[in-house]
Structure formats: structure tokens, C-alpha cells
Amino acid sequence: MKPSILIGIVASNSRSYEQVLRSAEQDLADATERQMRLEQDILTRLRSIATLQLEHAPSLQQEVVQALQERQQAQAQLRQQLLEVERGIAQSMQTSHSLQEQLDALDQQAREQLAQDPVYVDLMQQLEQATAANQEALTGYAEIRQECADKLPLFRRNPIYYFLRDRDFGTEQYRHGPISRWLDAWLARQVNYAGNRSNELSLLNMQQRNEALQAERDAQIAALSETTGAQLADAQRQAGMAPLLEEQKALYKHQVGTKQQANDIHQQLQAFTQNQDPHYLRARQWITDQLQAKSIEQLLEDVKKTPSTADDQIAAQLQTLYPQVSGVEQTLVEARKTHTLAQEAYDRAKELERSLRTDFYRDNGYQYRTSLGIERLLADYMVRDVTLGYIVGTIREHRELVPRVAVSSSSSYSSRDSSWSSSSSSSSSSSSSSSSSSGGGYSSSGSSGGGGFSTSDSF
Q1: I want to staple 412 with a disulfide (CB 3.0 to 4.6 A). Which of 82, 223, 378, 407 is the partner?
Q2: Beta bridge partners of 399
Q3: Which residues form a coiled coil (predicted)?
Q4: pLDDT at 62
Q5: pLDDT value of residue 213
């Protein structure tokens, strides 16, 4: 699977959850508006009941109606703008997909041309063998590195041993009088200085050789990668990829700009979802002013106590509206809950997309094995069966270098196997050399740490 396909699947997953989120935002905004319109309708009827002594303020009533209309229009305008921007993004993505297909075709053409170059083929085989040998050696390298990291600090923790080592005891640089020599020799016997010094030097030599061998392997891979990469880049230029790559770069820059536009509109719509837009705040304040420090529920309860028979008709109308208040509030609660869940799911999807939209995962020099099963992984990730770290790690594990040369002939395979055997032998020889060079350091009198710091029994 190519990186563009992987990123496309992950981006499509984000867009699907974004659509769910936008729908939840619209439902929440609609529920909020229904609540305010119902409150204003009830207030209009309540104002007709004299005993409630609500101030007759037609201007406030009109302001509420106008604010709600303006709120509805503002949201509709923003959503229309968002729709147009998203259409542009969709068209841009289609263009990007088509462009990527052209680039992939030219890239394949360049690789097939290089497959006819024996020098390039030989270098690529060397690179593959060096990479495989390095992969095989990594476990041993890590084990030796950890062993040295665990054992070497122990030698610095014994003050007597550290004192003698600091005085160059047992070396040609050691220059002290007879008494000091006698005392130092006695101390050396107590801490098994000769054996421990041999162990420490063996560990240091093993550490140095281990790092040198790994650096040598890394340098070989880097040099081969640079050489073959330069040859591939030259072949890609000759195939005509350069202008398309520039076009792709410009298109990507355009996509970033349009996506930022979409994000800005989303931020403005979020103010409506959170009831922080100026239209809602004005309408809410005007309704509060009309209520005169009472809630709708309190006023409806007061209606039941009014003694005037003239108010019976209005009271009857309000009795039919009263259940709607609870219904609208319940709808609002459910809409908020749905929106919260949709927001969390969208954030989770975008977090994964952002994690993968890096040069590392988008590098066309690599591909992803089909055994990855990205669709199943995505489904598990979105229901929180797996973590972000797990899915990213799994994707990384399934990442492999795109074969720059397709080796198909039996003679090529035979040659490659022969070289591989030689490489493996060399690697094993290096590992054996490291082990043998440290063997003497691991055998010391009274030592139970396999080459670590030890003391004699008399101490």
C-alpha cells in the first residue's frame, strides 16, 4: 500500500466523523433556537395575565424575534460559506489524487529503467543486504549496549577501586613510594583490583567495538542510500517528474490555505454551538429582562394560582405548552450529549491523521504491507479498543522500503543469496569478535556478575 493511499484512508475516516460532528452541531443549534422561541411564545401569552404583573415591552419581544432571525441567517450564511470551501477542498483532493497517480506512473517508469542498469542493480542489492544484516545485528548490538550500561557504573561506585584506578595503580604511570605501594597493594587485594580492572577494560573495549561496528553498518547503509537515492532522483527527473512535483507542492500549499479557511468557519460556527454568539447572548438577555428575575417554570406555576376566570383560556393554552418546555429541554440535553460524543470522536480521528501527516509516513520511498489491515485498525481505534500509540506503532512496523529494483531472474537470486551468506558470516564474525574480546573480562575470582564488579571473600 502506498503512503498516499494510507493517508487517504485515514483522512476519509476523519471526514466521515467531521460530517457527524457538523450534523450534531446543527441539531444542537436548532434545539437551542426552539427553546428560545418557545420561551418567547410563552412570555407573550403570560404578559396577557394581569396578576403576573409582567411589564408589557413589545420592543423587547420584537428584539428577541429579530435576534433569533439574525442568528438563523448568520448560521445559514456560514454554513453556505463552509459548503463552498469544502467543495473546493474536495476538488483539490481529486486533483491531488490524479496528480499522485501520474507521479506514481512516472516513478514506476524511472525504477523500471534503473532496473536495466547493472551498476544500480548491484548497489541496490548491496543496500538490501546491508539493511538485512544490520537488522539481524541490532538485537545483539542492543544487548551488548545494555550490558555495558548496566555493569560499567558499578566500577565507579566502589570508593577503594575508584581511588586506586585514579592513582593509575598497576600501570606504568604509577609513581609512589614503598609505603604507599605496600598500602595500595593491600587495598588492591581487598577489592580484587586486578580482576575487576580486567573486567572493566574488557567491558570498555567491548562497548567501543560494539559502537564502532554499529557506526560502520550505519555509515555503509547511509552511503549506499545516498548513492542509490541520487540515481533514482536523476531517473525521476528524466522521466518528467520535476514539474509535477512542483505542481503537487503548490497544490498542497493551496490545500493548507483552504483547510485553514474551513477551520476558521468551524470556529465561528462553534460559537453558535456553545451559545456564545452575539445573537444568542442578546436574545437571552432580553428574555431574562422580560422574566423579571423569575423562571418560565415559576411563572407557569403562578398561572395555576390566578383567580381570574378571564385568564382561563390563556391558562389552558399555557397548559398545553408546559409539557413542551420539558420536552425541548430534554431534546437539548440529548443534543449536547450527542455533540460531545461527536466532538470526541472527531478529535480522536484528527489526532491520528495529524500523527501520520508527517514526512516519515508520507515518504514515497516506503510502502505498507497489505497485512496491515488499516480499516480494521481504524475501527478498533475509534471505539477505543486500541490506543493511538498502538495503531501508530503497528503502522510503523508494517512500513518497508520500496524495492528500487525488481529482481526476478534465478541467477540474480542466486547471486543475492551468495552475497547474503557472506554478509551474514561477516556479521556473525563481528559479533563473535566482540564476545571473544570480552571473554577474559568476564572471568574473575569470586565474580558472580558475569563481568561486573566483584570483591574477594576476605573483604
Answers
A1: 407
A2: 368
A3: 14-147
A4: 77
A5: 96
CA distance 104 to 402: 12
CA distance 67 to 58: 14
Residue entry with cell 510503523: 396
Q: How far apart are CA 364 and CA 370, in angstroms?
A: 16
For the record, the C-alpha cell of 312 comes out as 382561563
Residues in the chain: 459
Do residues 440 and 198 touch, judged by C-beta distance below 8 A?
yes
**pLDDT confidence of residue 32:** 86
CB atoms within 10 A of CB 370: 9
Predicted local distance difference test score (pLDDT) of residue 370: 86
- Report pLDDT for 305: 60
DSSP state of 366: E
Contact yes or no for 407/413 (Cβ under 8 A): yes
The stretches of 274-387 forming alpha helices (DSSP H) are: 278-291, 296-304, 312-356, 359-362, 374-382
For 354, the 3-state DSSP assignment is helix
Cβ neighbours of 111 (radius 10 Å): 19
Euclidean distance between CA atoms 156 and 159, whole angstroms:
7
Contact in structure between 388 and 381 (CB atoms under 8 Å)? yes
Q: Write down the pLDDT at residue 297.
A: 64
pLDDT at 376: 92
Which segments of the chain have a pLDDT < 50?
406-450, 455-459
The grid cell for 57 is: 415591552
Q: Rounded to whole angstroms, how far apart are CA atoms 445 and 242?
A: 68
User: Measured between alpha carbons, how far is 342 from 21 in angstroms, rounded to an integer?
Assistant: 5
How far is the C-alpha of 261 from the C-alpha of 81, rounded, in Å?
Answer: 10
- How confident is the model at residue 420, as a pLDDT? 31
For residue 400, what is the enclosing H or E element? strand 399-401
Cβ-proximal residues to 281 (8 Å cutoff; 6+ apart), any chain: 275
Cα torsion angle, 360, 394, 149, 130, sign: negative
Residue 390 to residue 35: CA distance in whole angstroms: 44
